[in-house]
Each structure stands twice: as C-alpha cells, then as structure tokens.
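Example record used in the benchmark description.
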Amino acid sequence: MIQGTPDWEIVSRSLQAAGWVVDRFFCFGNWYLPVNNLNYQEYLAQRPGALRSTIRRAHAKLKRHPGFQIDIITGGRDLSAAVSDYTTVYQKSWKVPEPYPEFIPGLCRLAAEQGWLRLGIARLDGRPIAAQLWLVASGKAMIVKLAYDGEYAHTSVGTVLTAHLMRHVIDVDKVSEVDYLMGDDPYKQDWMSHRRERYGLIAFNPRFVAGVAGLVQHRLGTLKKELFR
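Model output (structure tokens):
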C-alpha cells in the first residue's frame, strides 16, 4: 500500500474510529523509471557508463555466435515452448524453487490472453540460457521474474536480455513507466532512476489481551530495529 493515498487514509481512519491502535511497517523499496517520452537510446545514454559498456561488450560477443538468439513471446503457438524454456532456465539458476510450480506458467497464459505478456528467452544453439517475465499493462512495464543458467553467468546474458526487453517496452510498447517491483538489489539502481517505499498498515484491538500483547510485541520490535540502526 502507498502511504498517504486515499485508500491508506480510509483504512487507517476507519480502524482508529473503531478504537484500534494503528501503526505502519516498512515492506520494501521499489525502484522504477519514469520514461518521460525518451526513446531507448536516450534512456541508455542516461545509464551508468559501466552498464552501457557491459551491454555493448556482452552483446557483441554473444552476437558473434551464430546460434545466439533472443525472442520476446507475447502469446500464440510459441507460448507453451517459451514457458517450458523459462522453467528450464529457472531450474538451472540460483533461484530458490517456486513453492507453487504452476503459478508462473498459469500467470504467463493469463497474461498472454490479456495482451500483457512479454516473455523474453535467450537461446544459444537452441538451448535456453536466460529468461525474463515482464508484464505490460496500463502504460506500465513490470519486471516480474529474472533468471539465467549459472553455466553462462560469465557471458552477462541476463544483462543483454534486460536491455533487449527494455528497448522493446520503451520503443515498441511506448510505456510511461518501468517498475522493478520489490527489492533494493543494487543492480536495479543501474537500470532505474527513482526509488519509492511501500509500507503496510498493522492494527491492534486494545480491548483484548491478544491485541495488547501484539501491540507490545510490535512496539518492542520497532524499538529494537531503531536501536540497531
């Protein structure tokens, strides 16, 4: 939830009016890019020199291999194979296994039906080595999942694939914003230009022992974090 929005205020004031004690808690940092009508080349010129250099060198090296290709799948007859390739890459990456393995394939199919899907697959000699799931809706591109085969980490294929998808959403989809969603991973700062924070609301009913105990525990936890900070 975004602090200060009408939804935030309505929920917070309603709980307080009912006698609940309301507080907020930090959820995550969110890096994003207002495109501001830039084309991809103009956007890239504003990125750090080290990132531009990595994209240029890695792309040139991969392009010299005749078996290298990148596809962006939005639906159609290639969808099933692309989802299978995504799953293959994810299983060979550093990522923790999904607790619900059918969620992402189901999300891809739903997104394809709605016209939201941008599933990027990088292949070398027909073998999928990197995959990224982006969604585009209401003028915004959301970067949902990234993965690459650890065997090819030295090629920076993940960076090349991100650049390819970034070009597509900026120049083809003409989005107004690109959103990296959850997390303050350092690499996101290279691609994005702005950061915002997401907070949650937590409420306790002081009329009950459980509510008071929860409030005390919450306040002690907050104090502990402040002291460590």
